[in-house]
Protein backbone atom coordinates (compact mmCIF):
# COMPACT_ATOMS: atom_id res chain seq x y z
CA UNK A 1 0.00 0.00 0.00
CA UNK A 2 1.21 3.47 -0.90
CA UNK A 3 1.01 5.27 2.48
CA UNK A 4 1.82 8.65 0.99
CA UNK A 5 -1.93 8.89 0.36
CA UNK A 6 -4.26 10.07 3.10
CA UNK A 7 -6.64 7.13 2.61
CA UNK A 8 -6.38 3.60 1.27
CA UNK A 9 -9.85 4.03 -0.23
CA UNK A 10 -11.99 7.04 -1.02
CA UNK A 11 -15.63 6.37 -1.92
CA UNK A 12 -17.61 9.01 -3.80
CA UNK A 13 -21.25 8.55 -2.84
CA UNK A 14 -22.94 7.18 0.28
CA UNK A 15 -25.72 5.15 -1.34
CA UNK A 16 -26.02 1.35 -1.02
CA UNK A 17 -22.96 0.66 -3.22
CA UNK A 18 -20.83 3.31 -1.52
CA UNK A 19 -21.78 2.22 2.00
CA UNK A 20 -21.02 -1.45 1.42
CA UNK A 21 -17.72 -0.83 -0.34
CA UNK A 22 -16.56 1.50 2.45
CA UNK A 23 -17.55 -0.90 5.23
CA UNK A 24 -16.00 -3.89 3.43
CA UNK A 25 -12.70 -2.05 3.06
CA UNK A 26 -12.86 -0.94 6.71
CA UNK A 27 -13.38 -4.56 7.79
CA UNK A 28 -10.16 -5.36 5.91
CA UNK A 29 -8.34 -2.83 8.09
CA UNK A 30 -8.10 -0.06 5.49
CA UNK A 31 -8.28 3.71 6.02
CA UNK A 32 -11.51 4.74 4.34
CA UNK A 33 -13.52 7.88 3.69
CA UNK A 34 -16.93 8.41 2.10
CA UNK A 35 -17.62 11.73 0.39
CA UNK A 36 -21.18 12.95 -0.17
CA UNK A 37 -23.30 16.05 0.34
CA UNK A 38 -24.48 16.39 3.94
CA UNK A 39 -28.10 16.40 2.79
CA UNK A 40 -27.62 13.22 0.75
CA UNK A 41 -26.37 10.70 3.33
CA UNK A 42 -27.65 7.35 2.09
CA UNK A 43 -27.70 8.65 -1.46
CA UNK A 44 -30.68 8.80 -3.79
CA UNK A 45 -31.74 5.41 -2.39
CA UNK A 46 -32.57 6.90 1.02
CA UNK A 47 -33.36 10.50 0.16
CA UNK A 48 -35.45 10.47 -3.03
CA UNK A 49 -35.55 6.94 -4.47
CA UNK A 50 -35.94 3.44 -3.06
CA UNK A 51 -36.73 4.14 0.59
CA UNK A 52 -39.18 7.04 -0.03
CA UNK A 53 -41.09 5.23 -2.78
CA UNK A 54 -41.38 1.99 -0.78
CA UNK A 55 -42.40 3.87 2.36
CA UNK A 56 -45.00 5.77 0.34
CA UNK A 57 -46.27 2.46 -0.99
CA UNK A 58 -46.73 1.01 2.50
CA UNK A 59 -48.50 4.16 3.69
CA UNK A 60 -50.87 3.97 0.70
CA UNK A 61 -51.60 0.27 1.24
CA UNK A 62 -52.46 0.91 4.88
CA UNK A 63 -54.47 4.13 4.54
CA UNK A 64 -56.49 2.96 1.54
CA UNK A 65 -57.23 -0.42 3.13
CA UNK A 66 -56.66 -1.85 -0.31
CA UNK A 67 -55.38 -5.25 0.81
CA UNK A 68 -58.54 -5.90 2.84
CA UNK A 69 -61.15 -4.93 0.26
CA UNK A 70 -61.50 -8.54 -0.84
CA UNK A 71 -62.76 -9.27 2.68
CA UNK A 72 -64.64 -6.10 3.63
CA UNK A 73 -65.85 -4.78 0.28
CA UNK A 74 -64.65 -2.41 -2.45
CA UNK A 75 -65.60 0.70 -0.44
CA UNK A 76 -63.44 -0.20 2.59
CA UNK A 77 -60.88 2.47 3.54
CA UNK A 78 -58.92 3.17 6.72
CA UNK A 79 -59.04 6.93 5.99
CA UNK A 80 -61.63 8.51 3.73
CA UNK A 81 -59.67 11.58 2.58
CA UNK A 82 -55.95 10.85 2.28
CA UNK A 83 -53.71 13.93 2.12
CA UNK A 84 -50.08 14.39 1.19
CA UNK A 85 -49.43 15.24 4.85
CA UNK A 86 -50.68 11.78 5.84
CA UNK A 87 -48.23 10.20 3.43
CA UNK A 88 -45.19 12.39 4.10
CA UNK A 89 -45.33 12.03 7.89
CA UNK A 90 -44.33 8.40 7.72
CA UNK A 91 -41.91 9.16 4.91
CA UNK A 92 -39.85 11.71 6.84
CA UNK A 93 -39.72 9.47 9.91
CA UNK A 94 -38.30 6.53 7.95
CA UNK A 95 -35.79 8.67 6.02
CA UNK A 96 -34.55 10.25 9.27
CA UNK A 97 -34.10 6.90 10.98
CA UNK A 98 -32.38 5.31 7.98
CA UNK A 99 -29.97 8.25 7.67
CA UNK A 100 -28.97 7.86 11.31
CA UNK A 101 -28.48 4.11 10.89
CA UNK A 102 -26.09 4.73 8.00
CA UNK A 103 -24.15 7.39 9.91
CA UNK A 104 -23.85 5.03 12.88
CA UNK A 105 -22.63 2.14 10.71
CA UNK A 106 -19.91 4.27 9.12
CA UNK A 107 -18.86 5.68 12.50
CA UNK A 108 -18.78 2.23 14.09
CA UNK A 109 -16.47 1.01 11.34
CA UNK A 110 -14.19 4.08 11.65
CA UNK A 111 -15.08 5.37 8.18
CA UNK A 112 -14.68 9.14 7.79
CA UNK A 113 -17.82 10.76 6.36
CA UNK A 114 -16.82 13.95 4.57
CA UNK A 115 -19.72 16.26 3.79
CA UNK A 116 -19.25 17.86 0.38
CA UNK A 117 -19.10 17.38 -3.38
CA UNK A 118 -16.05 15.72 -4.90
CA UNK A 119 -14.32 16.06 -8.26
CA UNK A 120 -11.04 14.73 -9.60
CA UNK A 121 -7.95 16.89 -9.92
CA UNK A 122 -5.78 13.89 -10.86
CA UNK A 123 -6.27 10.08 -10.77
CA UNK A 124 -5.48 9.87 -7.03
CA UNK A 125 -6.66 13.28 -5.83
CA UNK A 126 -10.14 14.63 -5.12
CA UNK A 127 -11.11 18.22 -4.49
CA UNK A 128 -14.07 18.39 -2.12
CA UNK A 129 -16.32 21.45 -1.88
CA UNK A 130 -17.24 21.45 1.79
CA UNK A 131 -20.41 23.36 2.69
CA UNK A 132 -20.19 25.57 -0.35
CA UNK A 133 -17.89 26.56 -3.21
CA UNK A 134 -15.68 28.80 -1.04
CA UNK A 135 -14.49 26.01 1.23
CA UNK A 136 -12.40 23.23 -0.22
CA UNK A 137 -10.54 20.19 1.01
CA UNK A 138 -8.15 17.92 -0.86
CA UNK A 139 -8.34 14.15 -0.37
CA UNK A 140 -5.83 11.67 -1.77
CA UNK A 141 -6.42 7.92 -1.94
CA UNK A 142 -4.67 4.87 -3.27
CA UNK A 143 -7.97 3.41 -4.54
CA UNK A 144 -11.18 5.23 -5.46
CA UNK A 145 -14.69 3.86 -5.90
CA UNK A 146 -17.27 5.93 -7.77
CA UNK A 147 -20.79 5.26 -6.43
CA UNK A 148 -22.56 8.48 -7.39
CA UNK A 149 -25.79 6.90 -8.63
CA UNK A 150 -28.09 8.54 -11.14
CA UNK A 151 -30.49 11.42 -11.63
CA UNK A 152 -33.73 11.39 -13.67
CA UNK A 153 -33.16 11.87 -17.40
CA UNK A 154 -34.91 15.01 -18.66
CA UNK A 155 -35.71 15.18 -22.38
CA UNK A 156 -34.77 18.56 -23.86
CA UNK A 157 -38.18 19.16 -25.44
CA UNK A 158 -40.01 18.90 -22.10
CA UNK A 159 -40.19 21.84 -19.65
CA UNK A 160 -40.13 20.65 -16.04
CA UNK A 161 -41.71 23.22 -13.69
CA UNK A 162 -41.71 21.09 -10.52
CA UNK A 163 -45.46 21.69 -10.07
CA UNK A 164 -47.36 20.30 -13.05
CA UNK A 165 -44.55 18.56 -14.92
CA UNK A 166 -42.24 16.60 -12.63
CA UNK A 167 -39.50 14.02 -12.75
CA UNK A 168 -39.48 10.95 -10.49
CA UNK A 169 -37.48 12.75 -7.77
CA UNK A 170 -39.92 15.67 -7.66
CA UNK A 171 -43.09 13.58 -7.44
CA UNK A 172 -42.73 13.45 -3.66
CA UNK A 173 -43.20 17.24 -3.56
CA UNK A 174 -46.75 17.31 -4.93
CA UNK A 175 -49.02 19.51 -2.81
CA UNK A 176 -52.08 17.27 -3.10
CA UNK A 177 -53.04 13.85 -4.41
CA UNK A 178 -54.02 14.56 -8.05
CA UNK A 179 -57.31 13.33 -9.49
CA UNK A 180 -55.67 12.61 -12.85
CA UNK A 181 -52.09 11.92 -13.84
CA UNK A 182 -49.95 10.93 -16.83
CA UNK A 183 -46.88 8.80 -16.16
CA UNK A 184 -44.38 8.73 -19.02
CA UNK A 185 -42.18 5.64 -18.97
CA UNK A 186 -43.18 2.06 -18.09
CA UNK A 187 -39.91 1.03 -16.51
CA UNK A 188 -39.62 0.00 -12.86
CA UNK A 189 -39.92 3.50 -11.36
CA UNK A 190 -42.73 4.61 -13.66
CA UNK A 191 -44.87 1.53 -13.08
CA UNK A 192 -44.27 1.60 -9.32
CA UNK A 193 -45.44 5.21 -8.96
CA UNK A 194 -48.30 4.69 -11.43
CA UNK A 195 -49.64 1.80 -9.33
CA UNK A 196 -49.22 3.75 -6.07
CA UNK A 197 -51.23 6.74 -7.33
CA UNK A 198 -53.82 4.44 -8.91
CA UNK A 199 -54.31 2.86 -5.48
CA UNK A 200 -54.91 6.36 -4.06
CA UNK A 201 -57.76 6.81 -6.53
CA UNK A 202 -55.90 8.87 -9.15
CA UNK A 203 -56.91 8.09 -12.74
CA UNK A 204 -53.51 7.28 -14.23
CA UNK A 205 -52.54 7.03 -17.90
CA UNK A 206 -49.26 5.20 -18.45
CA UNK A 207 -47.43 6.12 -21.68
CA UNK A 208 -44.53 4.03 -23.02
CA UNK A 209 -42.85 4.17 -26.43
CA UNK A 210 -41.97 0.46 -26.30
CA UNK A 211 -44.71 -2.05 -27.11
CA UNK A 212 -44.62 -3.60 -23.63
CA UNK A 213 -44.01 -2.52 -20.07
CA UNK A 214 -41.29 -4.18 -17.98
CA UNK A 215 -40.17 -6.28 -21.00
CA UNK A 216 -37.50 -8.13 -19.01
CA UNK A 217 -40.15 -9.78 -16.80
CA UNK A 218 -42.21 -12.89 -17.48
CA UNK A 219 -45.04 -11.89 -19.89
CA UNK A 220 -47.67 -13.91 -18.01
CA UNK A 221 -46.83 -12.14 -14.76
CA UNK A 222 -46.95 -8.72 -16.45
CA UNK A 223 -50.32 -9.52 -18.04
CA UNK A 224 -51.63 -10.30 -14.55
CA UNK A 225 -50.25 -6.99 -13.29
CA UNK A 226 -51.82 -5.08 -16.20
CA UNK A 227 -55.19 -6.73 -15.58
CA UNK A 228 -55.04 -5.68 -11.92
CA UNK A 229 -53.98 -2.11 -12.76
CA UNK A 230 -56.78 -1.77 -15.31
CA UNK A 231 -59.13 -2.78 -12.51
CA UNK A 232 -57.77 0.30 -10.68
CA UNK A 233 -58.92 2.43 -13.68
CA UNK A 234 -55.40 2.79 -15.10
CA UNK A 235 -55.13 3.31 -18.87
CA UNK A 236 -52.20 2.20 -21.04
CA UNK A 237 -50.79 3.90 -24.11
CA UNK A 238 -48.05 1.47 -25.16
CA UNK A 239 -46.07 1.97 -28.35
CA UNK A 240 -46.72 5.71 -28.08
CA UNK A 241 -44.12 8.48 -27.89
CA UNK A 242 -44.62 11.86 -26.22
CA UNK A 243 -44.26 14.75 -28.65
CA UNK A 244 -44.74 17.50 -26.07
CA UNK A 245 -46.33 18.60 -22.80
CA UNK A 246 -48.10 21.90 -22.20
CA UNK A 247 -48.75 23.05 -18.64
CA UNK A 248 -51.29 25.66 -17.62
CA UNK A 249 -52.84 26.93 -14.42
CA UNK A 250 -55.31 24.04 -14.07
CA UNK A 251 -53.41 21.13 -15.55
CA UNK A 252 -51.49 19.71 -18.47
CA UNK A 253 -52.01 18.48 -22.03
CA UNK A 254 -49.73 15.65 -23.15
CA UNK A 255 -49.53 15.34 -26.94
CA UNK A 256 -48.43 12.00 -28.37
CA UNK A 257 -46.61 11.53 -31.68
CA UNK A 258 -49.71 9.77 -33.01
CA UNK A 259 -51.76 12.92 -32.46
CA UNK A 260 -53.60 11.79 -29.32
CA UNK A 261 -53.94 14.35 -26.53
CA UNK A 262 -54.30 13.49 -22.83
CA UNK A 263 -55.50 15.97 -20.20
CA UNK A 264 -54.29 15.53 -16.62
CA UNK A 265 -53.52 17.57 -13.53
CA UNK A 266 -49.94 16.32 -13.33
CA UNK A 267 -47.38 14.67 -15.61
CA UNK A 268 -44.57 12.57 -14.12
CA UNK A 269 -41.64 11.79 -16.41
CA UNK A 270 -39.79 8.57 -15.69
CA UNK A 271 -38.08 7.93 -19.01
CA UNK A 272 -34.74 6.58 -17.83
CA UNK A 273 -31.94 7.76 -15.55
CA UNK A 274 -28.70 9.63 -16.22
CA UNK A 275 -25.40 8.71 -14.54
CA UNK A 276 -24.51 11.33 -11.94
CA UNK A 277 -20.97 11.95 -13.25
CA UNK A 278 -21.19 15.37 -14.88
CA UNK A 279 -19.51 17.30 -12.07
CA UNK A 280 -16.83 14.69 -11.28
CA UNK A 281 -14.40 16.09 -13.89
CA UNK A 282 -13.67 12.55 -15.07
CA UNK A 283 -11.16 13.67 -17.70
CA UNK A 284 -8.76 14.67 -14.90
CA UNK A 285 -8.72 11.01 -13.85
CA UNK A 286 -8.39 9.66 -17.39
CA UNK A 287 -12.01 8.48 -17.50
CA UNK A 288 -14.91 9.10 -19.86
CA UNK A 289 -18.62 8.40 -19.36
CA UNK A 290 -21.00 7.29 -22.12
CA UNK A 291 -23.77 9.48 -23.51
CA UNK A 292 -25.96 8.63 -20.50
CA UNK A 293 -23.28 9.47 -17.95
CA UNK A 294 -22.52 5.84 -17.14
CA UNK A 295 -19.14 4.21 -16.62
CA UNK A 296 -17.94 0.94 -18.15
CA UNK A 297 -16.38 -1.60 -15.76
CA UNK A 298 -14.92 -5.10 -16.01
CA UNK A 299 -15.98 -8.20 -14.06
CA UNK A 300 -14.21 -6.82 -10.98
CA UNK A 301 -15.95 -3.41 -11.28
CA UNK A 302 -12.66 -1.79 -12.32
CA UNK A 303 -12.83 1.10 -14.80
CA UNK A 304 -10.25 1.65 -17.54
CA UNK A 305 -8.08 3.33 -14.88
CA UNK A 306 -6.71 0.41 -12.87
CA UNK A 307 -7.16 1.80 -9.34
CA UNK A 308 -10.57 3.41 -9.92
CA UNK A 309 -13.71 1.31 -9.56
CA UNK A 310 -17.40 2.06 -10.08
CA UNK A 311 -20.52 0.39 -8.64
CA UNK A 312 -24.28 0.83 -8.48
CA UNK A 313 -26.64 2.64 -10.81
CA UNK A 314 -23.78 4.63 -12.36
CA UNK A 315 -22.68 1.48 -14.22
CA UNK A 316 -26.18 0.66 -15.52
CA UNK A 317 -28.46 -2.39 -15.38
CA UNK A 318 -29.84 -3.78 -13.13
CA UNK A 319 -29.54 -0.53 -11.14
CA UNK A 320 -31.18 -1.87 -7.98
CA UNK A 321 -30.24 -1.10 -4.39
CA UNK A 322 -29.72 -4.80 -3.61
CA UNK A 323 -27.37 -5.40 -6.54
CA UNK A 324 -25.51 -2.15 -5.80
CA UNK A 325 -24.80 -3.34 -2.26
CA UNK A 326 -23.22 -6.54 -3.51
CA UNK A 327 -21.27 -4.71 -6.20
CA UNK A 328 -19.83 -2.45 -3.50
CA UNK A 329 -18.73 -5.41 -1.40
CA UNK A 330 -17.16 -7.14 -4.40
CA UNK A 331 -15.39 -4.02 -5.69
CA UNK A 332 -13.74 -3.35 -2.33
CA UNK A 333 -12.73 -7.00 -2.03
CA UNK A 334 -11.17 -7.03 -5.51
CA UNK A 335 -9.46 -3.68 -4.90
CA UNK A 336 -7.58 -5.12 -1.91
CA UNK A 337 -7.08 -8.67 -3.23
CA UNK A 338 -9.58 -10.24 -0.85
CA UNK A 339 -11.12 -13.47 -2.23
CA UNK A 340 -14.76 -12.84 -3.16
CA UNK A 341 -17.49 -14.69 -4.97
CA UNK A 342 -20.78 -13.60 -6.42
CA UNK A 343 -23.97 -15.22 -7.64
CA UNK A 344 -24.76 -12.68 -10.34
CA UNK A 345 -26.92 -15.13 -12.29
CA UNK A 346 -29.21 -15.58 -9.30
CA UNK A 347 -29.78 -11.97 -8.28
CA UNK A 348 -33.49 -11.42 -7.57
CA UNK A 349 -35.38 -8.59 -9.21
CA UNK A 350 -38.02 -6.92 -7.03
CA UNK A 351 -40.59 -4.46 -8.39
CA UNK A 352 -42.66 -2.74 -5.71
CA UNK A 353 -45.81 -2.17 -7.66
CA UNK A 354 -49.22 -2.71 -6.09
CA UNK A 355 -49.27 -5.75 -6.20
CA UNK A 356 -45.58 -6.70 -6.09
CA UNK A 357 -43.66 -8.52 -8.82
CA UNK A 358 -40.43 -10.42 -8.23
CA UNK A 359 -38.40 -13.07 -10.00
CA UNK A 360 -35.09 -14.89 -9.97
CA UNK A 361 -33.48 -16.97 -12.70
CA UNK A 362 -34.62 -17.49 -16.27
CA UNK A 363 -37.87 -16.68 -18.04
CA UNK A 364 -39.73 -19.08 -20.34
CA UNK A 365 -38.76 -16.99 -23.36
CA UNK A 366 -35.04 -17.11 -22.51
CA UNK A 367 -35.08 -20.87 -22.01
CA UNK A 368 -37.04 -21.45 -25.23
CA UNK A 369 -34.50 -19.38 -27.15
CA UNK A 370 -31.66 -21.40 -25.57
CA UNK A 371 -33.46 -24.69 -26.45
CA UNK A 372 -33.52 -25.80 -22.81
CA UNK A 373 -36.32 -28.32 -22.08
CA UNK A 374 -38.52 -27.20 -19.18
CA UNK A 375 -41.90 -27.60 -17.54
CA UNK A 376 -43.90 -25.03 -15.59
CA UNK A 377 -45.77 -25.34 -12.30
CA UNK A 378 -48.31 -22.74 -11.19
CA UNK A 379 -49.80 -21.95 -7.79
CA UNK A 380 -52.46 -19.30 -7.20
CA UNK A 381 -52.93 -17.53 -3.90
CA UNK A 382 -56.67 -18.15 -4.01
CA UNK A 383 -55.91 -21.89 -3.62
CA UNK A 384 -54.01 -21.23 -0.37
CA UNK A 385 -55.62 -20.82 3.04
CA UNK A 386 -53.26 -17.91 3.72
CA UNK A 387 -54.35 -16.26 0.49
CA UNK A 388 -57.96 -16.39 1.67
CA UNK A 389 -57.03 -15.06 5.13
CA UNK A 390 -55.22 -11.98 3.78
CA UNK A 391 -57.72 -11.41 0.99
CA UNK A 392 -55.33 -11.88 -1.96
CA UNK A 393 -57.17 -13.77 -4.69
CA UNK A 394 -55.00 -12.62 -7.60
CA UNK A 395 -51.45 -13.59 -6.54
CA UNK A 396 -49.57 -16.39 -8.25
CA UNK A 397 -46.24 -18.20 -8.19
CA UNK A 398 -44.62 -19.86 -11.19
CA UNK A 399 -41.81 -22.43 -11.04
CA UNK A 400 -39.79 -23.27 -14.15
CA UNK A 401 -38.10 -26.68 -13.88
CA UNK A 402 -35.60 -28.45 -16.15
CA UNK A 403 -37.35 -31.48 -17.64
CA UNK A 404 -34.33 -33.80 -17.36
CA UNK A 405 -32.37 -32.66 -14.29
CA UNK A 406 -35.46 -31.41 -12.39
CA UNK A 407 -33.44 -28.37 -11.27
CA UNK A 408 -35.35 -25.14 -10.68
CA UNK A 409 -34.39 -22.70 -13.42
CA UNK A 410 -36.62 -19.77 -12.50
CA UNK A 411 -39.19 -18.57 -10.01
CA UNK A 412 -41.65 -15.76 -10.79
CA UNK A 413 -44.04 -14.31 -8.21
CA UNK A 414 -46.91 -11.83 -8.43
CA UNK A 415 -48.88 -10.67 -5.40
CA UNK A 416 -48.53 -9.99 -1.67
CA UNK A 417 -44.98 -10.43 -0.34
CA UNK A 418 -43.63 -11.44 -3.76
CA UNK A 419 -40.30 -9.74 -3.03
CA UNK A 420 -39.94 -11.82 0.15
CA UNK A 421 -41.15 -15.15 -1.26
CA UNK A 422 -38.74 -15.12 -4.19
CA UNK A 423 -35.78 -15.72 -1.85
CA UNK A 424 -36.93 -19.27 -1.09
CA UNK A 425 -36.57 -20.23 -4.74
CA UNK A 426 -33.33 -18.25 -5.00
CA UNK A 427 -31.80 -20.18 -2.09
CA UNK A 428 -32.78 -23.56 -3.54
CA UNK A 429 -31.39 -22.62 -6.97
CA UNK A 430 -28.18 -21.32 -5.40
CA UNK A 431 -27.64 -24.69 -3.74
CA UNK A 432 -28.36 -26.59 -6.95
CA UNK A 433 -31.59 -28.02 -5.51
CA UNK A 434 -34.31 -29.72 -7.49
CA UNK A 435 -38.09 -29.49 -7.47
CA UNK A 436 -38.11 -32.74 -5.45
CA UNK A 437 -36.88 -30.82 -2.40
CA UNK A 438 -40.07 -28.73 -2.46
CA UNK A 439 -42.23 -31.81 -2.92
CA UNK A 440 -40.63 -33.58 0.03
CA UNK A 441 -40.20 -30.68 2.47
CA UNK A 442 -42.79 -29.54 5.04
CA UNK A 443 -43.83 -25.88 4.94
CA UNK A 444 -45.73 -24.02 7.65
CA UNK A 445 -49.52 -23.91 7.29
CA UNK A 446 -51.17 -21.54 6.58
CA UNK A 447 -48.49 -19.50 4.77
CA UNK A 448 -47.93 -18.03 1.33
CA UNK A 449 -44.76 -20.14 1.19
CA UNK A 450 -47.03 -23.10 0.53
CA UNK A 451 -47.30 -21.74 -3.00
CA UNK A 452 -43.94 -23.39 -3.64
CA UNK A 453 -45.30 -26.79 -2.59
CA UNK A 454 -48.41 -26.45 -4.75
CA UNK A 455 -46.39 -25.30 -7.79
CA UNK A 456 -43.85 -28.10 -7.23
CA UNK A 457 -46.61 -30.72 -7.14
CA UNK A 458 -48.14 -29.21 -10.27
CA UNK A 459 -44.90 -29.44 -12.25
CA UNK A 460 -44.02 -32.95 -11.01
CA UNK A 461 -47.49 -34.19 -11.95
CA UNK A 462 -46.94 -32.85 -15.47
CA UNK A 463 -43.50 -34.49 -15.67
CA UNK A 464 -44.94 -37.77 -14.37
CA UNK A 465 -47.70 -37.70 -16.99
CA UNK A 466 -45.12 -37.30 -19.78
CA UNK A 467 -42.98 -40.13 -18.36
CA UNK A 468 -45.98 -42.45 -18.02
CA UNK A 469 -47.20 -41.80 -21.56
CA UNK A 470 -43.68 -42.16 -22.96
CA UNK A 471 -43.30 -45.52 -21.19
CA UNK A 472 -46.63 -46.79 -22.51
CA UNK A 473 -45.63 -45.80 -26.05
CA UNK A 474 -42.34 -47.71 -25.72
CA UNK A 475 -44.19 -50.80 -24.49
CA UNK A 476 -46.65 -50.54 -27.37
CA UNK A 477 -43.78 -50.40 -29.86
TrEMBL record:
Q: Where are the transmembrane segments?
A: none
Q: Where in the cell is it found?
A: Cytoplasm
From the UniProt record, which GO molecular function terms apply?
dihydrolipoyl dehydrogenase (NADH) activity; flavin adenine dinucleotide binding; NAD(P)+ transhydrogenase (Si-specific) activity
Question: Which cofactors, if any, are listed as required?
Answer: FAD
Return the broad EC class.
oxidoreductase
One Gene Ontology CC term in the entry: cytosol
Q: Which residues form the FAD/NAD(P)-binding domain?
A: 7-328
Described function: Conversion of NADPH, generated by peripheral catabolic pathways, to NADH, which can enter the respiratory chain for energy generation.
Q: By what name is this protein known?
A: NAD(P)(+) transhydrogenase (Si-specific)
Q: Which organism is it from?
A: Microlunatus soli
Amino acid sequence: MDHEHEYDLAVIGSGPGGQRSAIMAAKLGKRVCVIDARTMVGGVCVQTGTIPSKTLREAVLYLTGMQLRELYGASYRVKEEITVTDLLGRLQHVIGRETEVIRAQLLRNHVDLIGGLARFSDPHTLEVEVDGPDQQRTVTADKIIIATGTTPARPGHITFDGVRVLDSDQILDVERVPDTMVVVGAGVIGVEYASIFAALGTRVTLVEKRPAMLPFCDPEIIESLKFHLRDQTMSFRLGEEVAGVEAGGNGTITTLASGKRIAAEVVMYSAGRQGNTERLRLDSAGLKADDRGRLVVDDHYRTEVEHIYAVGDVIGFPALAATSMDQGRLAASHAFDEPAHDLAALQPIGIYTIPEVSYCGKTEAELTEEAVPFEVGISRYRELARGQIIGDSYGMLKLIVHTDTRQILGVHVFGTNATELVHIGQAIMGCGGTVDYLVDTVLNYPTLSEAYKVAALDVTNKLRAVERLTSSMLVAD
